[in-house]
């Protein structure tokens, strides 16, 4: 879809993800949603970060996962992944600090030879905001955790140019 104007109204899409095709299905869904709402400029970064979170959900939980794509105010995009594992990995178990990007860069530099375990580090480096929280058993019968990230077009464009 070429030159679709960004939508100003909030919207939400949810998708239950089967294993083991969850990452591929989430990428295709995300591309279609962002293109249809005029947010295609966020696609590459959103796709990378979504795949990292979906892959972790599939790898570290024994149940289904769910993808949620939301447009928030000021063209902000929030992508969240729910899974059945209640353990929130560090550092997603606490709000990001002002120095988190620096900390993440330091961690990346210290682990240049690592072949796994970089997914959440990539999210910390590329997202404008991120976090996670547990879901209690009594909340609509859903338990597990929700990890999320946010991207904004202006911040994204600035980071690429910088």
Task: Outline the secondary-structure elements.
Layout: E1 11-17, H1 22-36, H2 43-60, E2 65-72, E3 76-83, H3 100-110, H4 119-126, E4 129-139, E5 142-151, H5 153-161
Antiparallel strand pairs: 1-2, 2-3, 3-5, 4-5
Helix pairs in contact: 1-2, 2-4, 3-4
Structure description:
The chain has 162 residues and is an alpha+beta fold. It has five helices and five strands; from the N terminus they run βααββααββα. It has helices spanning 22-36, 43-60, 100-110, 119-126, 153-161; strands at 11-17, 65-72, 76-83, 129-139, 142-151. It is globular and about 40 Å long. Residues 156-162 have low confidence and may be disordered.
Q: Helix and strand string, N-terminal first? A: EHHEEHHEEH
The biggest beta sheet is recorded as: 5 strands, antiparallel
- Cα distance spanning the termini: 28 Å
Number of helices: 5
Multimeric status of the protein: single chain
């Amino acid at each position: 879809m070429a030159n679709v104007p960004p939508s100003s109204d909030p919207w939400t899409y949810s998708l239950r993800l089967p294993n083991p095709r969850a990452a591929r299905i989430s990428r295709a869904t995300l591309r279609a949603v962002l293109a249809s709402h005029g947010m295609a400029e966020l696609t590459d970064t959103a796709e990378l970060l979504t795949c990292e979170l979906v892959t972790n959900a599939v790898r570290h939980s024994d149940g289904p996962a769910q993808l949620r794509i939301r447009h928030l105010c000021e063209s902000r995009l929030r992508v969240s992944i729910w899974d059945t594992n209640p353990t929130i990995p560090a550092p997603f178990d606490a709000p990001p600090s002002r120095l988190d990007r620096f900390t993440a860069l330091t961690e990346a530099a210290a682990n240049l030879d690592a072949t796994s375990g970089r997914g959440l580090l990539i999210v910390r480096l590329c997202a404008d905001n991120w976090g996670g929280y547990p879901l209690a058993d009594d909340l609509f019968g859903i338990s597990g955790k929700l990890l999320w990230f946010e991207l904004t077009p202006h911040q994204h464009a600035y980071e690429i140019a910088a």
